[in-house]
């Protein structure tokens, strides 16, 4: 796979019914345009194999006249077989800082210029998330962003506080790196009295609800478990503190890139 020109948002967003209606494209002409735009931008795509959530990076390669698409395969035959066995791929990407999300199903393994690839029907719908609170910031390595989560230790026992590294953050929630023993984290599980600690902001009390748990391969042979969690009823003033941290950090990053 060639180097992408666009950054990628790795974790699938969990949308309310209102958001889904507002940000989802169903018109085939609009979907074709957006698919072709991702191809032209050589945008990297995080394909989450569902169920299970294993993340496999890929890219859209071609859009054919018969309304099928070609996506890049993996160098590993094992991963390619898992793709074929998945019910569908939940694909996440970015285009001009706008988050794109769609599903691919009924994938067929083919060969493209001597490399494995997959052909599938064009997505029936695509989501374009443009709300500022859904912009995700990957936490810079220089920042120590931690969320303390009280986890039940069992019936009649006091909760154990776990300090979990925050991998990325938006105004709507966080992605947390989970410990080896992460059985307490599963979809719909709610954690109250959590504490998010942001540089130059301090401690922010939050309630978290788990949206998904997935495996993220950072490099061959090394993977971590992550959990995407949404903020529950986060007060407006605290949401603004989170957003201000995100935009301040992003501005600093852009300024450094311009100096290079």
UniProtKB/TrEMBL annotation:
UniProt subunit comment: Monomer. Interacts with the flagellar basal bodies.
Similarity field: Belongs to the YcgR family.
Name the UniProt record assigns to this protein: Flagellar brake protein YcgR
GO MF term set: cyclic-di-GMP binding
Main location group: other
Organism listed in the record: Pseudoxanthomonas composti
Role this protein plays: Acts as a flagellar brake, regulating swimming and swarming in a bis-(3'-5') cyclic diguanylic acid (c-di-GMP)-dependent manner. Binds 1 c-di-GMP dimer per subunit. Increasing levels of c-di-GMP lead to decreased motility.
Highest taxon in the source lineage: Bacteria
Keywords: Bacterial flagellum, c-di-GMP, Cell projection, Cilium, Flagellum, Nucleotide-binding
The PilZ domain, residue ranges: 130-248
Localization per record: Bacterial flagellum basal body
Listed GO CC annotations: bacterial-type flagellum basal body
An annotated GO BP: bacterial-type flagellum-dependent cell motility
Pfam families the record matches: PilZ (PF07238), PilZN (PF07317)
Sequence ranges assigned to domain Type III secretion system flagellar brake protein YcgR PilZN in this UniProt record: 23-128
């Amino acid at each position: 796979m060639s180097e992408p020109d666009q950054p990628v948002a790795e974790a699938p967003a969990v949308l309310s019914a209102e958001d889904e209606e507002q940000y989802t494209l169903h018109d085939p002409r609009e979907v074709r345009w957006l698919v072709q735009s991702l191809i032209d931008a050589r945008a990297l795509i995080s394909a989450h194999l569902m169920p299970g959530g294993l993340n496999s990076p890929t890219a859209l390669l071609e859009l054919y006249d018969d309304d099928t698409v070609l996506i890049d395969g993996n160098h590993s035959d094992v991963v390619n077989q898992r793709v074929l066995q998945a019910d569908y791929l939940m694909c996440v990407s970015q285009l001009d800082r706008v988050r794109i999300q769609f599903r691919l199903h009924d994938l067929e393994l083919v060969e493209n210029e001597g490399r494995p690839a997959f052909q599938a029907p064009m997505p029936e719908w695509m989501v374009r998330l443009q709300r500022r609170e859904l912009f995700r910031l990957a936490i810079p390595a220089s920042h120590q962003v931690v969320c303390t989560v009280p986890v039940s230790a069992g019936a009649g026992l006091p909760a154990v506080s776990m300090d979990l590294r925050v991998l990325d953050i938006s105004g709507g929630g966080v992605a947390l790196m989970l410990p080896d023993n992460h059985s307490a984290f599963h979809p719909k599980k709610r954690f109250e009295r959590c504490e998010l600690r942001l540089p130059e902001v301090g401690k922010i009390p939050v309630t978290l609800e788990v949206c998904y748990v997935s495996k993220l391969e950072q490099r061959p042979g090394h993977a971590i478990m992550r959990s995407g969690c949404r903020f529950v009823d986060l007060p407006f003033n605290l949401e603004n503190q989170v957003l201000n941290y995100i935009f301040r950090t992003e501005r600093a990053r852009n300024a450094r890139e311009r100096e290079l």
